[in-house]
Design a protein that fits this description.
single chain; about 80 residues
Length: about 80
């Protein structure tokens, strides 16, 4: 069993809190994306409206990717 310093564990806890917050934000964006996709599926839309929804989906996807990248685990424990 590895022996971790108090500082290491504190840093890991802080990272975990940040990651959980980011995952909540990611979930919110994914729900918005699902809502947009369902709206597009269930309605007859003009080409302009389809493009508007597609643009919004792409922006949300970029935000999801950015949040994920910023909060990925910065270390791998050797166990």
């Amino acid at each position: 069993m590895n022996s971790y310093s108090e500082e290491y564990l504190r840093q890991k806890l802080e990272w975990t809190k940040k990651r959980m917050k980011a995952l909540d934000e990611i979930e919110t964006r994914l729900r918005k994306m699902r809502g947009l996709a369902e709206y597009a599926r269930d309605n007859e839309l003009s080409q302009d409206k389809k493009q508007e929804i597609n643009d919004r989906l792409q922006r949300l996807q970029s935000e999801v990717n950015e949040l994920d990248e910023k909060t990925r685990m910065p270390w791998v424990d050797n166990q």
